[in-house]
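Q: Structure tokens for this one, please.
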Amino acid sequence: MESDASILSKLQSPSPSDFHRLFTAYLHPFTPFLAPTAADVKKPAKSSKSKPKIELPAIRPLAKQFISFIHKALSLIPKRLCESPQIPQYSATELFDSYRLCIDCLEVIASELSGKPHSVQVQRIRYVHCLENWCLFEEAEAEGLVVLERLNAIAGGELKAKSRKLKARLVPELKKEEEADRELAAIILEVVVTLVKCVSKRRSKIEADYRRVISLVNESESCFKILDAKDYEKFHHFLETNLHIITVYLVAEIKLFSVDLIREFSAVAFNEYKKSCAHDQIYKVALKICHSLFSQRDELSADIILDVLKHVLDFMAAECKDGAEKLAPGFLELVCYCANKSATVVLSDPVAQYLYRLARFFHQDFLFISSILTLYASGLLGSSSNQLKGEDAGKGGASLPFFLNNTERLQQVALSITCLNDHFDTAGKEKSSCEQAISHLPYREALKFFCLKLAESIFVNRKEIFSKAEIASCWENLSGIHDAFRQYCYIFLYCLSDTEREKETSGDNHKVISVVVVAALMLSFKTNQNIKESTLSVKHVISAQWIPNKRLKYLYVSLNNIAVILKSKKRLKEAFKALKMCCKALWNYIVDLCQIEMTKSQISEDYMSEKSIPDLVMEASDKVAFLLQLNEECNFKVNGIIRESIICWSNSENLIATLPAPVSLIKEWVKIQYKLSDDNEHEVMLYPLLSSSKEISKRALGKLLEEELFAYNEKSYLNPRYSVKMKMKVINVLLEEIYITKESIVEKCRVLIQKAKSLRALGLEQLDKGIQCLSDAVSTLKLTYVSRRRCSSQADNLLIHAYLLRALYTQEAAPQSMFLSPGSGFLDDIHDALNLRLHPDHCHEDEQYEDMLYLWYQVIDLLSIKGYLEIHPRLYDVVIKLFNKKNIQFAKTLAELWKNKRLSHALCASPVNHMFISTFSKHQSQLCNSSIFWTKCMEELKPLVVGFHHINNEIKQAASDFISSVSITSCSSFLSSNLYYGLSARLISSGQMIEALAYAKEAHRLRSKLLQQKFEYSVEKVVETFDVKGELIDKIHYSVQTFNINDFVVTKGSCDYEGSVLTPWNVLSCYLESILQVGFVQETLGNVSEAEMLLQWGRNVAQFQNLPLFEISFSCLLGKLYRKQNLWSISEKELSSAKKGLADNLNNISCKKCLCMWEISINQQIGDLVLSGSCCSEEPPSPKTLSSAKILYKLALEKLNLSDWGILYSTSEESLANDKCESKVEARRSRRTKKEAKPASQKQDTVCGHSRRITRSVHRSLVDTHVIEPAAKETGHSSGSANEHLMGVDSKSFSADLQSEIRSLCSKMKCWQCLHVEAGDCCNLSIFIFMNWELVHRKLSLRLLMSLGKFSGMFGHVHEAHEILMQSLSVLFSRNCSKHSSDSLPFLIESVGKYYPEDALAVERATLLYFICWFTVKSNCYQATSIPSSNRNFCCELFSIGTVRVLSLLKLSFILCRDVPVLLQKVSRLLAVIYVLSTSLEQFSLSSNEQGSESQWASFFHQSSLGTQLNQQLLSGIMQKKQNQSAGVSEDLDSVLDILDLPHSLRCGPEPCEDLEEFVLDFFQGLPSTPVICISLVAGADASLLKDLLHCSPKVQAWILLSHLSSDNQHVVLLPVHEILKEASNEESGSSSLIYNCKDFVKQWQCPWISSVIDDIAPVFRHVLEGNYYSSSEYFLDSIRENTSLWWTQRNRLNECLCKFLQDVEDLWLGTWKYLLLGMWPSCNHLDSIKKSLSRDEMDLLQHVVTKKCYVGLTSEETTMLLFNSMLEMSDSVDQAECISGKPIILVLDTEVQMLPWECLPILRNQEVYRMPSIGSIFATLDRHCENQKPLESSDPVFPLIDPLDSYYLLNPDGDLSRTQVEFESWFKNQNIIEGKIGTVPTVEELSLALKDHDLFIYFGHGSGTQYIPGHEIQKLDGCAATLLLGCSSGSLYLRGSYLPHGAPLSYILAGSPVIVANLWEVTDKDIDRFGKAMLNAWLRERSTASSECARCMPTKCIHRPRIASFMAQARDACNLGFLIGASPVCYGVPTGIIKRKGKIR
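A: Here is the predicted structure, written as tokens:
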């Protein structure tokens, strides 16, 4: 065991450790006397023996031995524990344990020591303090309680003598005060205070701990009484401080404790404060308690808060009442705090009621305190009312209504204010001596609280206050409140010292006075009292310098709101006063801000920077303008107002010179002057009003007068003459009075420029004067600055401005001049402006940034629309620098230029030209090729660009998102139109013409609106006459008289969507592009009239504005249009004009690619014209003519191939694109492929060479491959390789090696689909441009090659045609058309035969597929013939394509061209022919899955070939009507999508190929049950093809394709036309020629079809019609009037001739198959019955015809007749005499045969026959008329119904058909209810209404009546009556070449007429009158019996009765000439029944 010295030395070591063990060992002798610890106590073991008693050692020896060690240890240990820095924790633990051990040992030996009994406890108290210092509060509390227990024992005697009472106390109870030990009392209080301190610091969550503290405090009271004053103050201060801390903590954690505890504890704390000398601080404790309480008001219930709050306030109120002199200020401050914090929903009312109770408590003794409490309570009650009224009342919204409805409270408030006013005089001095200590601050605070709540309520209720609904007496009761406001204002404004006022205006306090003076003003206005005093208060606040300027902001806003309300209530005088003060406040606010800006003083968080001051100036200007508007009704003097406002502005402008002028003020001033301008002598300017003021500088005057000038210019439309006069006066003042010094030359030139603009705005007649002003400005600026080489940013910009304006004005003055020629002033001015702007010394601080940018944009757009791009790089340089100056990112710059179409010239195929790329690369060479940069650009461009998207759905979604996100403005309409235009272009390229037309029209509509905003023009109707093959044709179009920029927009542009700027030129460019686009689509769809009208208009506009690009384009398209109409001379004129325009502008059109493109297109068009004209000529084309056409094609092709399309882009771009695609394919190659690919050069030679060898594998792959599986319908593209579209090649057809080779070929050759996909996926603009141009190149190549191939094929050059087809295939996969070989043919055929959604070359590919298939079929003609050995290998390539593959390719072509009518007709006809041939020719056999459905496919494609253009016109007509209905209703994309929601039945085919079969099935299921007969002639090249395939006689010139269609059966026959139907005999022909000579007639007969195959196979029909025309003409009738028998002879001969012709058509052309017209077909039910009578071959043929339902006229007519009749005779169910099924027949006729009267064939003459141009028109008519009619039976059709008496007639409108009028006038009049006109011409509107509102329209007059209501007006109708048109040729259709025929019947069909009875040719009046009367009488008879019963139907619901056409046969018989006249009327439409409508009684 170590010695005591050693232990103590270790105790003093720096890091004492392990010494507790040493202490324990050393002090071990004390162990028996020490109480065991909890760890030492163990459970005693069970034992029967008693435990022996332990003998304790003597204490005294222990004391002697250890007393010294214990004292030293107790001296050292506290010092070590109090060391700084503290010892480690583990050492402190050891020290505390040792410390306690030493104290316990000391207590053992205490009895042997001298001193007082409590000396040991003093040591233990030191131990407690050490624990406290180490934050061991729980240990300290436990030890402290031990000390108290020991002291309790000492104070109370021996433990045995303790009573129960002593055991319950914590603090010892001392003896009486005179006998007590003060030292012991001090020790006890020290322990108590320490315990309370520990509790305050420990923050216990246990409630018992705090109740123990209460006990300690209460029990220690006797101890305090014993102490002297010094000790008392010391201990009591610590006690009250810690009690304060605990109380605040308990309130802060009130959720953890009971409210009773808090109340008890706070009471203890307050009581202790009362005992101390700091009792006056008690209110601060209460304030902290309340603060803690209110900080939790969102978390605590209102009851808890109120309970604690009342407890605190009750205590404070009692204290205040006992010592008001000292505690009243603190109490009132506490009340003020609580009142402000209690203004919530749940607290305000109960706190208010409580304060009222306190007020009554003080009322008797302290009235002023009671009054103050009443004010607080009243304010809270108002706040409570606000909350209870709900959110509608707003902040402070319901206080006012509360007081209006509570008179008692109002009286209390009034009495309180009176009392307080009496208590304090106006100077604020006290009256009574007892209240001298109380200042007037509490009164001011209470008054502020009350006034603020009421003032806020008044302002919130400002609308209700000034409403007339309030009762006046209610407001009289508010006089007390008004007095309170006045009192507060008086105290605040006049009674406060500077210090008090500064305090009152700090923070948010300044708001109070502003709110109160505004509320006082409102009450004054309401009560009409004290208005002057309230107004003075507001003005005082506005003008005061000691209140922060923020109060001015509130004042001007509030006063403005009041003025607006007063004006709405028609209280104009008050509104004027309020607004006038508002303007004053705002101007003062602006001046203060300007002073702060200049001095940079008093900057606070509310400070507004200089950038916002201009906005305030503009707002102030607006307010003054509003004030002037009010003055118009109040008739105050305005000059003073304007002068005062302008002086304030001038003061601000003197401080900050950059402030804008008060524009609105000046505009309103100018507006007033315009109103006073009726007085001719009124010519007042601002200058005389302001010039006398010394406060306004010349600079400020200049600004003001320039703004006045602009204002007059802007409002010039109000009074142009007055505007000119005033503007010139202002300009003269500026030039003569203001800008007269050398220092103001720049300003003078600016005014000159403004003068030029003003002159231009007055019209073109002032343009020369404007140019002169600009020239003066230019010369002045050049002399002053340029000659002196002085740099001035403003001067430079003005000079640039003048140059650009002069250039634009010069061009506008003479738009048709050659201003682009070298040395022209136009280009010189632009170059001068560029040189100045791009000069290195130019100061780049561009003033008027938007104006300058607009001028540069005008120049760019003007040059772009003309195609002149030579100076575009410098222009782009300027624009980029302008954007850079504004810190606009390059991506944003590109997006800005792109979306406004400024990156390329008009009509360019590329959206970006190479000049911009080169300019851009100069500025950012690294970014130009950065994919990250272009990706960012695309993000900026979305959704305003379609170029980077290759999926149309993405474009539609982008357009929808954009259009729905912006408002409809000029710029947003422009951007929307660009989206529509781009989308339409994409749809056109993919062949979706109908959808493209919808978007193109929408773009055109939007752009037309923009054009009307930018331009004003006048037109003149012009009629041009052309001689076409001796026939004179009139062409009507509108020429441009004037076409100028609108005077009001010539100098400013539109800028309203993210900086988009429109100029007249880019609007005009886009407008013309839209015209071209719509015209192109209309032409493609066959709507030739609309297309021609648009294109003529566009060309005229382009000619007037000298726009060569558009002139060439419009002329080219017009040339094509006229060529396809067979108007060769007009077409030649247009194409010659285009060629001349191109030659004249070679030097002015900068884009060489576009020049090349136009040159190629013109040559191709001329070649097509030469070829078409030669083919349609009656004489065979000469070799020279054919050679010239071929030379044109080849020249164009050579031009295309030799032109360097890549010259504008580096070859690296192309290699980059190729490498990108190739690298992706390389990664997918198999190991074997990679090995085989090593000899790349050898492979390349194989691919691109010219080998003609076809391998066996290639041959097998082409022959054996079945139908190509179309690609899955795609809605988007993946991010993979561009050639992934080839991955779907049939694995059964191609091996893995061949598939890999295909992908490799695609990568190397860059197929068209790769280009399309990569153009959308690429992230590099250069590559994107290259890809676009490459697609254009290939499109042109394909068109040229196909024209050349068509030429070769037409003239028998089969080998050459095949060669060209192979080249065309290669063009799809490579730009070089020579890259093809026989080895690559499988790949080429397989790839070109796949379906790709949104194909960029859809139409071209469809055409190519058609020609490939046509020539493939043609090749079958030569299989049995000998072919030269030199050609056989190559030709066999096309021989190798099987029929299945041909059909697959043709079906794909059908899908691709479904919206291209001319091509669709050819493809459909070829498909129909092949399917029919497949039933007869082995080489055309089908696959097993298609066998048996030949008739279905053939009939479907046959009907698809008929009326293709009409179907498209039906769709476009429906679309146009929807557009007309939605115009002006909706501008978004949804309206367009709704327009595109077209009937499925009118669609020609589905979009994806895989849906075709299902589409066909749905088509047949949707057919009406009535049979449909389709008839067409196969002529020309197709007829020759059939003749060669079927080895027919050379005499066969045409074939009849006849199909019978119904929902359950389809039959098709293909019959050769062996016989040419000529006139009966030369004698008859000669006799007819003797009667008349056509040359004798002034008006020649014009054949409706001009030329047709009918003229070749049935010339007699043309002769009959011609003879009919001349024999029925007036000239002929006059010449033979005396010899009528001769005339009748001629007429009868013509009638007989026509009768024989129709018999011959039936017998010689149709033969036995005429029965198919009735739906009859041999039945298989009776084959067994006739087997014995037929030979084996005959039986096989009959079996084949019966099962296949198709027939090709290969056998002789006798055999066919025999077989057919045999079947008919053996059938018991068929009786030829009763073969009529009762169902009507609808004929669908090809344009080549529609002129024939098929209805009068003998077999059809007695049938109910209708004719329609297409099956689509049948669907459309039935859908339109039957959508609301329910079918009576599921098997019966639902047809339209009409009531013949619900009709409108037009009889003899020209008045020259007297016999007809006599015949029908009385008849019509007898039908009383029939409406109509006789002998007069109705208006178009009348006829439109008649057609719309009636069931039947009857016309007896000349022609079809379209001279009274044009066809386009009829087509506009959405529903039309049935029509009976009995004029000459009223039903004739006039053929227009390749386009849709035109005629009245088609117009009525398009309008929805169910049936049209009209004449195919000329008729005589008597016979046709007989026909007409017979028809009308029959209809009326049927109507009269319409209600009788039918055996098959219910009454009045019969659908089996005769219909409109049922009476045609008997009506024809009424004619004398049953064929010449009787065959002329035909019935267009669908079966239409006759009913008797309700209300129609006869």
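A few notes: The longest helix spans residues 1325-1354. The chain has a mean pLDDT of 77.
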